[in-house]
């Protein structure tokens, strides 16, 4: 398997926790170590397995980071994994900062050997490329998505129901707001 990570890998990882539209009850795809290992086998080659609890905590912290901003959770994992950099906020946007004691400024997935390391390196690469702010979580359905709009101001996962699982969160929110205005 060719070892390439991209934004799809990150989005897929974040969406291993989701709220299906038909039930509206949160579901975690990482229910046991075997489910985690099956997921990893589909996306990357690793030489070291992380504990399920650590991966679930990392995913939860990363989802919180994407949804609410800040850099504290991300820096916690950077420090824990001994990566020679840290995230800072610059004009409200997270950026990557390399200190004088950094081993390297080359952030690439070949340097790390577990799922947490791989995803963390992908996040750091997106920070370095100034694209991490495009990773978003829909405020309605909590689905993670990559905002490809020119202005990078997309709020909802979709305006249309593109598949049987789709929800059209943007349209639902617009209709709801319109009806509220009509009441007043």
UniProtKB/TrEMBL annotation:
Domain (Zinc finger CGNR): residue spans on this chain: 134-181
Record-linked Pfam families: zf-CGNR
InterPro entries: ABATE (IPR010852), ABATE_dom_sf (IPR023286), Znf_CGNR (IPR021005)
Top-level division of the source organism's lineage: Bacteria
Name of this chain's protein: CGNR zinc finger protein
Source organism (scientific name): Paenibacillus taihuensis
């Amino acid at each position: 398997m060719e070892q390439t990570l991209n934004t799809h890998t990150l989005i897929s990882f974040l969406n291993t926790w989701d709220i299906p539209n038909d039930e509206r009850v949160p579901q975690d795809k990482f229910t046991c170590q075997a489910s985690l290992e099956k997921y990893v086998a589909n996306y990357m080659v690793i030489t070291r397995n992380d504990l399920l609890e650590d991966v679930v905590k990392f995913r939860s912290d990363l989802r919180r980071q994407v949804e609410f901003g800040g850099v504290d959770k991300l820096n916690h994992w950077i420090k824990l994994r001994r990566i020679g950099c840290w995230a800072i906020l610059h004009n409200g946007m997270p950026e990557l900062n390399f200190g004088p004691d950094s081993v390297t400024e080359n952030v690439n997935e070949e340097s790390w050997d577990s799922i947490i390391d791989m995803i963390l390196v992908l996040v750091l690469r997106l920070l370095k490329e100034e694209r991490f702010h495009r990773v978003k979580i829909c405020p309605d359905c909590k689905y993670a998505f990559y905002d490809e709009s020119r202005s990078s101001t997309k709020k909802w996962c979709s305006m249309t129901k593109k598949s049987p699982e789709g929800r059209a969160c943007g349209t639902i929110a617009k209709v709801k707001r319109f009806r509220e205005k009509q009441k007043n």
